Automatic annotation (TrEMBL):
Organism lineage string: Bacteria, Bacillati, Actinomycetota, Actinomycetes, Propionibacteriales
Record-given protein name: Glycogen operon protein
Region feature (Disordered): 466-492
GO MF term list: amylo-alpha-1,6-glucosidase activity
GO biological process: glycogen catabolic process
InterPro entries per the UniProt record, alphabetical: GH (IPR017853), GH13_cat_dom (IPR006047), GlgX_Isoamylase_N_E_set (IPR044505), Glyco_hydro_13_N (IPR004193), Glyco_hydro_b (IPR013780), Glycogen_debranch_GlgX (IPR011837), Ig-like_fold (IPR013783), Ig_E-set (IPR014756)
Compositional bias ranges of the Basic and acidic residues kind: 466-479
Amino acid sequence: MTPTLWRTLGEQAEVWPGRNWPLGATWSAESTNFAVYAPNATAVWLCVALDGPGGAERRYALTEQSLGIWHGALPSVAPGTRYAYRVEGPDAPEQGMRFDPSVLLLDPYGLAVSGEAGAAWSVVVDPAFDWQGETPIRRRYLDTVIYELHVKGFTKLHDRIPEELRGTYAGLGHPVVTQYLNDLGVTAVELLPVHQFFSEPALLERGTVNYWGYNSIGYFAPHAAYSSSGDRGQQVTEFKEMVRSLHAAGIEVILDVVYNHTAEAGPDGPTYSFRGLDDRGFYRRNPPGLDGDPDYDDTYWDVTGCGNTVNSEDPLALRLILDSLRHWVTEMHVDGFRFDLMSAITRTAGPDAIKVDMACKLLIAIGQDPVLRHVKLIAEPWDVSMDGYLVGGMPPPWVEWNDQYRDTIRDFWRGQSGGTQSVATRLAGSSDLYADDGRSAYNSVNFVTAHDGFTVRDLVSYDHKHNEANGEDNRDGSDNNRSWNHGVEGETDDPDIVALRRRQAANLMATLCLSNGVPMLTAGDERGRTQGGNNNPYCQDNEISWVDWSVDDAWLDVYEVTRAALTLRREHPALRQRHWFEGRPTIVGGPKDLAWLHPSGREMTDEDWYDAGLTTIGMFVSGRPLRTPGPRGEQQIDTSFLLWFHAGAEPIEVYLPDNDWVHAGAIVLSTDPGLPDGTRVEVGEVLTIGARSVVVMQEADA
């Protein structure tokens, strides 16, 4: 497409031709290039907002088009300028085309967003930033401890952070936060979605908002509401400052990203961007709506539960996902991503189905990308369909949220495990899921809670969900909580029940921190955060969801156990070994690298593994030497450990077997008040462990 005829000699076009790459608004001191993909449009206008009352705008027709990309350049555009698009084309929903020039459309590649849904603009951004020599941390998975948190909720109530910074990127980068995370032992924060998102209209109508942020609309733009400094590009600078601060403290930044669906919902949902530019290409349709099929069906195909599913097979949708990921790594310096509902975007369409495909275009492209293949890639390996459950099925180098770890450990500590066989498998890294394809225990991201579900405190305080505040008559949220209230539903003043709950919370946290794999903690669990039994507070932007930093009701004893467990993990490579345990010696004549002990002191037998009534297991881990050599091939030697996990309702006597390698030890972590840290133990002794306790013994000189 070319410009219209010139009227006279010597004219100069108001809009320069520009170029069709890169997509988005690319600022320079001379001009800003605008490029947007709308292959079926018949006209595109760049709309520049005029500051002042009334929301006035100035429109510029983009007359250049190539490869489906409309483009042009405007001279002397200042950073902070707001812009959007109006697009004209066929109004033919039955063909997947919903063009409407009356609707302002956000730039899919916009680097910042200003304003609320329905009145939002993209923003021209100058990407320059002084990183002050900061470099990627690139910490190994075996040294990683992930802490899942919400940017706003983590600091909104923190009284040691300046009030104007609470709930913002600047607040999260504050030294008070980095010091807390360092003291706890966290090495990476996993941020709930920070791509620009909008709340669903139905939530706004009932006076709530989308708090979690799983409703993305701007895949290059930091969510503006988390900025303390403004929404005209300041949010970009503030996000970078937060990353720089966290990196200076040795803490990596992982983003929870939602490429599987957008805030535009179903075909009758709001139009903010993609639907008005390339509805047919960007969103999947039900078969047989495939690539120009004459029997095209405009019914949206939805395995996200949110009305639409992004079509990652579409070349431009795939390009957007990859460009977005690279942008956050190269420009924003993040260290990795956790992909929400990964199964939804790992699918390939056939003649009658859209099936999960581990050789899909997206996975191949990420695996070959020289930038992306070296960052942390974490999958939530499922979607809302029956065939989308992929735990243990993602290809290398992906790691996975392991919900089987969550369910097994919850069941064990509530007395519903039916034995110890599966418990041992999860403690040792879930080899049944990851060893068969050459992956390691560190492909398992272990967790007992996440943002979605009960907190640890609520897990030991409620049998049932209490989501009435969400306005959905308590129908939302899972009913499969695997929780136990220990005799009273909800909070209680009964000192015995409170003490048991706190011990059970400490048991869960200690088990998580000392299991083989990558531990992921949920923010506030280590200090007894409660949501009042709400297991789905996605719409609760208030004290239900925010972390309470007061000490009045904090479970600080749980904090100390969590901190101690993470310290042991960090200081002792025996407790975070890279290779799978083999159950055989690491040196001629030495002990097994891993041995499972029965309370009687013998190694577990086949009959023991199938004893449904057994609620106690001992895990001996040898450190003399480790199987894995050091970075220069050196032999690594650590102390050995014996970890007892006792979920029984009564105290139990455990026998410490005589052996040729370890003769004495000391308790270095205990949730049993009768066995304090420092208690000396000798082989051949009988040790009484209190009901429902974790006891960790470390080798000591005889």
